[in-house]
């Protein structure tokens, strides 16, 4: 492997956040193996050891706590619950297939009796499996995040460009930024119930309630970062724009946005993180069938498996949050200019 | 092997029956009561609270009774009774497993105002009153024993000295119930008052229900009862299963009495829908009532032979979700009081026998009398008013129509339903205090209680006037 290709592979890996891979590449491309091994130990070995220590401590300490639902499950218990959730997912899929098969027979019978009969396909009515719930949560968070972005970026740009507008918005931003999702939710619920009335709704109300709550809480980091990014644009660039007599639209799209992009992305990353965190609470209360409701239902079940399942959810939430952040980081790397590449 | 061939055969049987029915329907105009109804709405969403008495819904779904009627039903657990009621009222849910007092309370406007009706009673009995270990230890000293075990039923008389003790120490004695208009609230109050413990009045201006109270009652959602008691926020509670047995299993409390012993075969949950829904979708309403009657029959069939299977279904996380053993403890003909003190109690959960699913007017009247007794209905009302409200909310007409369709389909027998009743049960006297209830004379009934509002009495401030 030549140094150049190694470098390229390396850049891609760094971009998607797999920095620990770098020493391996370097070793393959023939650089000082000893030095690279040390590097590998630092980047990969230490985290792995730390995680192992964490698992050990967890399984030891979990044994000490006796709750009314039994002992707190250790890593093995949680792993078993994860497996059983996966098995349950497969069972649900089979039931779903059986459901459609029954419907097909039903339709066939109906059509045999009357070829002009109208047959309607019903979607599966059973419970969502754990995997379905993860996707519901992802859908909800992205819906809320997209709405938030659609408002936050334009308002942020205006704030950054016009000190006057910024002064007007500032108090509102400061007041609403620290409000908890749990405070927004009742208001959102009532407003959605009153405003969103239709016979054949495209979205479930519970879905909208959760998504809008996410929006209200995840709006602020993007808004603030965008306005800071826009405001701190290089004076020289502004002057060049003035000399070239660029119109407003061109100025925004060609100058302001590109130079503010890194900060906008930082804002978006933070927003998505906040949104994901807030979502779980919103789902618990709004009864949106995602991970939040899963946790709440298991808490209510109070069975001997409940704690284990809730812990599976905790890890799922954590890992997905981490992945979302990585995805945003990668996007940021791809779309913005930086000196490092 | 044997099992498969049997299911296959029964499947073929249903298939031929269905084909014949469809054939007939195509040939002539649908005769009344034949096979499938013309449904106005086929996709439905029903809510429930995680309690074993939601069983008819789970069974109707899992055994395909809803689908047999052409209904595609989604069942969804709700966070608490308030959320459930609100979602039925604003149409997010088409119907729900409700407390008997909820349709009545909503219709007379106590809490949220909406006209809710019920074509189907879901079960009899099924609740219990549990106290914390600490309270039990203090109570137990006063309870007479036989063969080393406390004699049941345990009256609230034995709780009275414990409450006096708390009072002397200046500590409030708190108990949980699940909702202001819940059967549990009234049963707990009935039991306390029968033991001369005042459970408190409601008034027009104070709806906490704690005026003049010796025991302070407050609302906690059923599944959170054990945890709330464990945390010491309440000293006891009245709730449906499996949350009393859960306390036994967790070792955090002791059930002292079941509602079966407070009032033998008392009506418990109902299935509630808005009047609007029933008017707009009459055939759908009939079809779902049919499916639920079949589920109730299945639950009590062959001397409760199916209960174990039902428990297995209910213990799944999407339904009640508690452990199999906990649910089985009360659903399979027994009830465990103190740990290890398991006694037979066959009728703890009744889903079909004794005409359990028929919505009797007299049941509605009983709940209304209790609302009056404790001031939720702040002023005196005439006997006629009680009967009018009962007839507005309880709808045996729909129930009997559905029952007739089932008899015509050959699924149910004629003797399973009370065709000739006027909707009032014969006067009942199997209450813990021995007082007789006659649904036809609610005001007369109210005068028999030593604690409680009667005639034209009104609670003003902290006093009873009139």
Describe it for me?
The complex is a heterodimer of chains A (341) and B (466). By secondary structure, chain A is mostly helical. Helices cover 79% and strands 1% of the residues of chain A. Chain A has helices at residues 3-15, 22-28, 33-64, 75-113, 130-161, 163-176, 181-195, 205-231, 235-244, 248-286, 291-301, 306-335, and strands at residues 66-67, 70-71. A two-stranded antiparallel sheet of chain A has the order 1-2. The two termini of chain A are 21 Å apart. In chain B, 41% of the residues lie in helices and 15% in strands. Chain B has a 5-stranded mixed beta sheet, sandwiched between helices. In chain B, strands 9-8-10-5-11 form a 5-stranded mixed beta sheet, with helices on both faces. A two-stranded antiparallel sheet of chain B has the order 6-7. In chain B, helix 5 crosses helix 17 and helix 14 (307-314) runs antiparallel to helix 15 (324-331). Chain B starts with a helix and ends with a strand. The longest helix of chain B is centred in the first third of the chain and has 26 residues, at 2-27. Mean pLDDT of chain B is 89; it is low at 1-34. Chain B has 466 residues and is an alpha/beta fold. Chain B has helices at 2-27, 55-62, 65-68, 81-89, 101-108, 133-140, 160-168, 183-194, 225-230, 243-250, 259-262, 275-280, 282-304, 307-314, 324-331, 361-373, 383-393, 396-409, 442-446; strands at residues 43-48, 72-77, 95-99, 116-121, 127-132, 145-146, 149-150, 174-177, 216-219, 236-240, 253-258, 269-274, 334-336, 342-344, 458-460, 463-465. Chains A and B meet through helix 4 and helix 11 of A and helix 1, strand 2 and helix 9 of B.
């Amino acid at each position: 492997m030549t140094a150049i290709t190694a470098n390229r592979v390396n850049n891609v890996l760094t971009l998607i956040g797999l920095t620990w891979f770098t020493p391996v590449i370097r070793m393959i491309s023939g650089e000082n193996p000893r030095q690279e091994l040390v590097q590998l130990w630092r980047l990969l070995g230490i985290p792995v050891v730390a995680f192992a220590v964490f698992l050990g401590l967890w399984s030891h300490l979990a044994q000490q706590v006796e709750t009314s639902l039994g002992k707190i499950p250790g890593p093995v218990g949680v792993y078993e619950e994860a497996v059983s959730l996966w098995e349950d997912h497969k069972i649900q899929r089979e039931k779903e297939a059986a459901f459609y098969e029954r419907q097909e027979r039903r339709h066939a019978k109906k059509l045999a009796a009357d070829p002009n009969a109208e047959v309607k396909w019903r979607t599966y009515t059973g419970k969502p499996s754990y995997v379905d719930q993860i996707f519901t949560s992802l859908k909800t968070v992205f819906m809320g995040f997209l709405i938030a972005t659609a408002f936050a970026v334009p308002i942020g740009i205006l704030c950054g460009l016009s000190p006057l507008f910024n002064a007007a918005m500032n108090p509102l931003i400061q007041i609403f930024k620290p409000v908890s999702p749990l405070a927004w939710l009742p208001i959102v619920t009532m407003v959605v119930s009153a405003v969103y009335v239709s016979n054949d709704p495209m979205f479930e109300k519970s879905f909208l309630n959760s998504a809008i709550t996410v929006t209200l809480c995840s709006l602020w980091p993007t808004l603030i970062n965008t306005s800071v990014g826009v405001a701190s644009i290089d004076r020289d660039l502004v002057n060049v724009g003035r000399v070239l007599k660029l119109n407003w639209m061109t100025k925004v799209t060609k100058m302001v946005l590109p130079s503010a992009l890194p900060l906008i992305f930082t804002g978006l990353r933070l927003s998505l993180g906040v949104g994901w965190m807030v979502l779980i609470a919103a789902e618990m209360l709004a009864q949106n069938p995602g991970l939040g409701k899963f946790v709440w239902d298991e808490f209510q079940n109070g069975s001997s498996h409940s704690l284990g399942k809730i812990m599976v959810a905790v890890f799922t939430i954590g890992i997905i949050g981490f992945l979302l952040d990585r995805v945003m980081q990668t996007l940021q790397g791809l779309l913005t200019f930086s000196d490092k590449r | 092997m044997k099992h498969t061939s049997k299911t296959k055969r029964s499947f073929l049987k249903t298939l031929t029956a269905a084909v014949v029915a469809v054939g007939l329907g195509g040939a002539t105009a649908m005769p009344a009561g034949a096979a499938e109804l013309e449904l106005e709405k086929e996709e439905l969403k029903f809510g429930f609270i995680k309690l074993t008495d939601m069983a008819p819904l789970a069974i109707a779904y899992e055994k395909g009774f809803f689908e047999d009627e052409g209904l595609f039903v989604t069942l969804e657990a709700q966070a608490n009774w308030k959320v459930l009621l609100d979602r039925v009222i604003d149409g997010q849910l088409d119907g729900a497993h409700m407390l008997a007092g909820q349709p009545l309370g909503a219709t007379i406007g106590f809490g949220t105002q909406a006209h809710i009706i019920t074509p189907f009673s879901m079960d009899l009995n099924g609740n219990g009153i549990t106290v914390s270990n600490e309270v039990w230890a203090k109570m137990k000293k006063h309870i007479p024993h036989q063969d080393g075990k406390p004699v049941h039923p345990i009256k609230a008389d034995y709780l009275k000295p414990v409450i006096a003790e708390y009072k002397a120490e200046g500590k409030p004695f708190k108990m949980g119930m699940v909702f202001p208009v819940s059967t549990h609230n009234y049963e707990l109050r009935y039991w306390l008052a029968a033991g001369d413990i005042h459970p408190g009045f409601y008034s027009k201006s104070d709806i906490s229900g704690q005026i003049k109270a010796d025991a302070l009652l407050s609302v906690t959602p059923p599944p959170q009862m054990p945890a709330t008691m464990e945390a010491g926020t309440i000293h006891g509670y009245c709730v449906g299963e499996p949350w009393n047995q859960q306390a036994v299993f967790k070792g955090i409390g002791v059930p002292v009495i079941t509602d079966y012993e407070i009032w033998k075969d008392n009506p418990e949950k109902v299935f509630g829908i808005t009047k609007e829904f029933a008017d707009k979708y009459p055939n759908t309403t009939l079809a779902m009532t049919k499916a639920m009657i079949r589920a109730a029959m299945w639950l009590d069939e062959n001397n409760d032979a199916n209960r174990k299977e039902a428990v297995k279904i209910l213990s799944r996380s999407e339904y009640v979700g508690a452990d199999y053993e906990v649910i089985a403890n009360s659903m399979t003909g027994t009830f465990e009081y103190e740990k290890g003190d398991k006694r037979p109690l066959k009728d703890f959960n009744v889903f079909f026998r004794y005409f359990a699913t028929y919505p009797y007017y007299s049941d509605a009247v009983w709940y209304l009398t209790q609302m009056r007794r404790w001031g939720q209905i702040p002023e005196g009302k005439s006997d006629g008013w009680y009967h009018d409200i009962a007839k507005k909310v309880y709808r045996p007409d729909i129930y009997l129509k559905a029952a007739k369709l089932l008899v015509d389909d050959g699924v149910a027998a004629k003797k399973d339903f009370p065709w000739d009743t006027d909707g009032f049960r014969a006067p009942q006297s199997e209450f813990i205090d021995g007082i007789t209830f006659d649904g036809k004379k609610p005001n007369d009934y109210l005068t028999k209680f030593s604690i409680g509002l009667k005639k034209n009495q009104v609670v003003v401030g902290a006093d009873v006037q009139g």
